[in-house]
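#lab-general

N.A. 3:47 PM
ok so I finally got the sequence cleaned up, no stray characters, all 116 residues accounted for. can someone with queue access submit it? mine expired

B.Y. 3:52 PM
send it over

N.A. 3:53 PM
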Amino acid sequence: MNTYIELKNNPSYFIVNKKQVNKNKTLKTSILYNKIESSVNSSLTYYKNSLNLSFKNIEFDIIKNAYLNDKLIIKNNIKKLSDTEVILYITVSKKEEKKQNIICKATFGYSLQKIA
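B.Y. 4:20 PM
back already:
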């Protein structure tokens, strides 16, 4: 079986608002995780009818804080794809004029089984 998954690789954007920050005006980790998880799930939604995806593992590395009113971009890319697994590499960066300032990196792994 040679499985091919084409991610719906439209970056997700969001602006950090008052409800998403703590008293120091930094983005709450739980909010960041939920945004990343939502982005990954929306990327894989189209394929859930033809493949059985089972969550396998996660790595989550916060590099820098995001603050109130920061504009953030979430991008998903395939790191590894085989007949039995898919591993997605996610970056979250601050949207700035001339550079992308990465604040978080994550890896989500899924086991694959073709639905009979």
